[in-house]
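Hi Y.,

Following your request, here is the sequence exactly as I used it, all 145 residues.
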Amino acid sequence: MRYIVNQIQDGEDELILNYRQMNSEVEAAIAFMEKNQKKLIGKVDGERVVFLPEDILYIEKVDDRTFAYTEDNEIQLDMSLYAIELLLNDEHYFRCSKSMIVNINKVKRLKSLSSNRIDATLINGEHVMISRTYASCFRKLLRGE
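Below is the corresponding structure, written out as tokens. Let me know if you'd prefer a different format.
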């Protein structure tokens, strides 16, 4: 597939996709374009906020409540972890434990631990544990399998 990128001085940014036949590369490009249109709604201090999925560092279920953590906020979501996983449906979000989803684009460092767990350090310095149940799938994902 050939890619053409042009910078413009004014006007609206646009993505145009021309293709002869639907294939996995075209589907991935369409998914990327559609993903960038998704927005999530949550609550911060009782106030509704709108944010983009790519801002999420990780999502965690705590005491029957679901929270999305960004660099700036802890946002309460009115969705189950499973529903969020289905909504995101993206290779950049990985279920790393029974109660957590991590944005792998926000992982800065990885450290293997005993009992086959992985300590993932995020870009903000926080640590997220990838449980042994999910560690082998995580390693395969990183290898591109």
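The helical segments are 24-35, 81-88, 132-143.

Thanks again,
Q.
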